[in-house]
Amino acid sequence: MADRGEYKRDQNYLTTRITADGRDGYPVEPGRYRLVIARACPWANRAAIVRRLMGLEDALSMGIAGPLHDERSWSFHLDPDGKDPVLGIERLQEAFFKRRPDYPRGITVPALVDIPSGAVVTNDFRQITLDLEQEWQALHRDGAPDLYPEKLRDEIDEVAELVFRDINNGVYKCGFATSQEAYDTAYDRLWERLDWLEERLQGRRYLVGDSLTEADVRLWPTLVRFDAVYHGHFKCNRQKLSEMPALWAYARDLFQTPGFGDTIDFDQIKTHYYGVHRNINPSGIVPKGPYPGDWLSPHGREDLGGRPFGDGTPPGPPPEGERVPPLT
């Protein structure tokens, strides 16, 4: 925290990369690594989406931490015996300590773990999705979309950085501010950027170009959590997402696109935010609403044209063990 009560995210991560040429000592190999996520976490949600869209399920297994954790780590409390069935650990912290016994920072998801050694390779969430898209191409499914086309990269990077600063991280700056001044500043920047997106998305189906890109993957996990947690829990309450016509339709469009909504478990999302952040919600009571079924209502975005997967095709259904509960 800064002196003025502003939330400061620690962005120092393990930046080792898994690459096609193995230049950091970790070459892309099918079955060697495990992607650890939590359904609750928006940063991990990005990696789960990209893994689905690229069709990497057979090449890269996925461990799912439960929604509750303490000051030590995310844990696998939903798995049998409370252990990840592949890594054999109770807490993700154990894999970080295998890499660095004195690891001094937060234990974050997503994390890519080297299964033979049991050690985390990287938790650099921004680079993980880009590498799954670019470095893992030899293991992509037929029809995997190009989420980071070279001709659009400058615009994707520019939009994604604004979204990160003011929205992805902006909701946390609202929720974890410890002064009125810091909260007011974060709140104003959040809504200025959401208004900018509302206008941008009125006449175009996707953020950049006419198909899904990395920019959409980075924005959407925040939008899908907005009404359920950020609006109330983080005091981002000028409007609900469902009261912003273009953004709400855009968010539903993606929810109904294979690879997006099929990664979402609203119960785990709410359990995490309301149950873990006791400094904000001391009672730990988890709200029953909002009604999630509205995510399946017609959105009408097809009228704007565009092709979700560009020259590619939709991914198949999630593996049996990775399916989320249906909306009720």
CATH level-3 fold name of the largest domain: Glutathione S-transferase Yfyf (Class Pi), Chain A, domain 2
- Report the radius of gyration as a whole number of Å: 19 Å
Counting copies of identical and different chains, the oligomeric state is single chain
Instruction: Indicate how many domains the architecture comprises.
Output: 2
Query: What's the helix-strand series?
Result: EHEHEEHHHHHHH
Q: What is the tally of helical segments?
A: 9
* Cα-to-Cα separation, first versus last residue: 39 Å
Helix content: 25-40%
Q: How much beta, percentage-wise?
A: 5-15%
> Average pLDDT value?
97
The biggest beta sheet reads: 4 strands, mixed
By CATH reckoning, the class of the largest domain would read: Mainly Alpha
DSSP strand count:
4
Strand order of the largest sheet: 2-1-3-4
In short:
With 328 residues, this protein is mainly alpha-helical.
What do you see in this structure?
- The protein is mainly alpha-helical.
- The chain has 2 domains: 33-139, Glutaredoxin (3-Layer(aba) Sandwich), CATH 3.40.30; 152-322, Up-down Bundle (Glutathione S-transferase Yfyf (Class Pi), Chain A, domain 2), CATH 1.20.1050.
- The protein is built from 9 helices and 4 strands.
- It has helices at 42-54, 93-99, 125-134, 153-168, 170-175, 180-200, 214-230, 245-255, 266-276; strands at 33-38, 61-65, 111-114, 119-122.
- A 4-stranded mixed beta sheet has the order 2-1-3-4.
- A hairpin with a 4-residue loop joins strand 3 and strand 4 (119-122).
- The mean pLDDT is 97.
